[in-house]
Design a protein that fits this description.
The chain is an alpha/beta fold. It folds into two domains: 136 residues, Sandwich (Immunoglobulin-like); 232 residues, Zn-dependent exopeptidases (Aminopeptidase, 3-Layer(aba) Sandwich). Helix content is 32%, strand content 27%. It has eight helices and 20 strands. The strands form five sheets. The protein has a six-stranded mixed beta sheet with strand order 16-13-17-20-18-19, with helices on both faces. Strands 1-9-10-6-5 form a five-stranded mixed beta sheet. Helix 3 packs across helix 8 and helix 6 crosses helix 8. The protein binds zinc ion. The site of zinc ion has 7 residues, from loops.
């Protein structure tokens, strides 16, 4: 509760406390035991120079049983929200925010208890708002001023039942387990197998391209199984597939599988038909807001439409401006790795003497490639609309050569990633 003699008189809601060295495992625990223990200890800001800071007045208001927080930041950063119980509280985690000098302003509310900031490790820091009763975030978003590049986090907390809070915490716990927490540590590439997620396109009620009795879904399932077999026979790969039968898997579910598997790379396998019929040869696609040409744009659009058909969720419906900013940030980190992946695929396929499209690496806004934190590529192994490609796609020998070329590509990419990672550690 408020300390009536404390800094509240200066308009600061509560005493600033720090929590330091909260381990990665602990941050997932519903009770942040370290918070009390570490209260009052020093907070090192070493290594945070040049990172985002609180850029203005962080204002907490209460209104009609709600708590409203406006938190200005000097720049947008990845962030997330967590609910906790005993006592009820909300944690706002930010990547690389320096809380030095931070103070929460506003009139005291009986809904708000203590608050504190601290570091979680791996560049994540946390703002904890302790609440005097169970509340749930009913609105939370980050907006960015395109002119100044500054960001504003707005949070709205509303009263909820203890049961609703417990359900929310359970759901967040499940999501953490599913997404592979950003803070969870694991051995770097090279000290463990690389997790390759193969994603045979389409399936179930969505056959993809169709030529006579052949479907893209079936051809890609066959090829995915063959490629998985080649990879599993090599050292250093762990293969996960998004489907291993003729069932419909939404684009969102495909991404979820990749996240659950903590994929090091995601490779979606397709053999679409293009209406103009001229496209032929293997083509690597990576994600871009702007497609490299109209055909790529149409291809991406068709895949997303097929997903809606199957009742899948188009991720873009969830995208507000904020999500896009976050994805852009995450992609900035992933982009060089994705580019190296695309290049390795093109080099590997063409190096094996297999036919590629005259523009072997193209870009389009494929929903299935929107796992911003996982290097992802979509490979049109060939185009079913091209008679020669269609023949090759049905030729087990040709597919064997393609699978070998891809395995070589992925092995080369993995080696380069291990090299890059050791460079970064130096
Ligand atoms: Zn397709």
């Amino acid at each position: 509760m408020q300390d009536p003699t404390g800094p509240r008189n200066r308009g600061i809601l509560s005493r600033r406390r720090t929590l330091v060295g909260l381990g990665a495992a602990m941050m997932l625990a519903p009770g942040v035991a370290g918070a009390q223990q570490a209260a009052g200890s020093g907070f090192s800001v070493g290594g945070f120079s040049g990172r985002a800071r609180v850029g203005g007045t962080a204002l907490m208001r209460s209104n009609d049983g709600r708590l409203l927080l406006d938190l200005p930041l000097t720049q947008p950063v990845p962030w997330r929200l967590r609910h906790m119980a005993d006592p009820p509280r909300v944690a706002l985690d930010f990547r690389q925010v320096d809380w030095t000098g931070f103070a929460l302003q506003g009139r005291a509310s009986p809904l708000l208890g203590d608050w504190r900031t601290g570091t979680l490790g791996d560049g994540w820091t946390r703002l904890v708002l302790e609440l005097t009763r169970p509340m749930l975030a009913r609105g939370a978003g980050m907006t960015v001023d395109p002119g100044s590049g500054r960001a504003m986090v707005a949070l709205r907390l509303e009263a909820a039942s203890a049961t609703a809070l417990a359900a929310q915490i359970a759901q967040e716990g499940a999501e953490d387990g599913a997404t592979g927490e950003a803070t969870a540590r694991r051995a770097p590439l090279g000290h463990r197998p690389a997790v390759v997620v193969l994603d045979p396109g389409h399936g179930g009620i969505d056959p993809g391209a169709v030529q006579g009795r052949l479907t893209e879904a079936a051809l890609m399932l066959t090829f995915s199984r063959e490629l998985a077999e080649v990879l599993r026979r090599r050292d250093g790969f762990q293969v996960v597939v998004t489907r291993d039968d003729d069932s419909f898997v939404s684009l969102e579910a495909r991404l979820r599988i990749a996240r659950q598997a903590r994929a090091d790379l995601f490779l979606s396998l397709h053999a679409d038909s293009l209406p103009d019929g001229n496209a032929h040869g293997a083509t690597v696609y990576t994600l871009a807001e702007e497609a490299s040409n109209a055909a790529s744009a149409r291809l991406a659009e068709r895949h997303d439409r097929a997903d809606l058909l199957g009742g899948g969720v188009d991720l873009r419906q969830h995208d507000d401006a904020m999500a896009q900013v976050l994805m852009a940030i995450a992609r900035t980190e992933t982009q060089p790795r994705t580019d190296r992946l695309a290049r390795a695929l093109v080099d590997g396929i063409s190096g094996a003497g297999l036919r590629m499209h005259r523009r072997p690496w193209q870009q389009a806004d494929f929903t299935v490639l929107r796992a911003a934190d996982i290097p992802s590529a979509l490979l049109e192994v060939g185009f079913m609309s091209s008679p020669r490609d269609l023949e090759r796609l049905q030729d087990a020998d040709w597919r064997g050569q393609m699978a070998l070329a891809l395995a070589d590509s992925l092995q080369g990419w993995m080696a380069s990633e291990i090299g890059q990672a050791s460079l970064r550690r130096r």
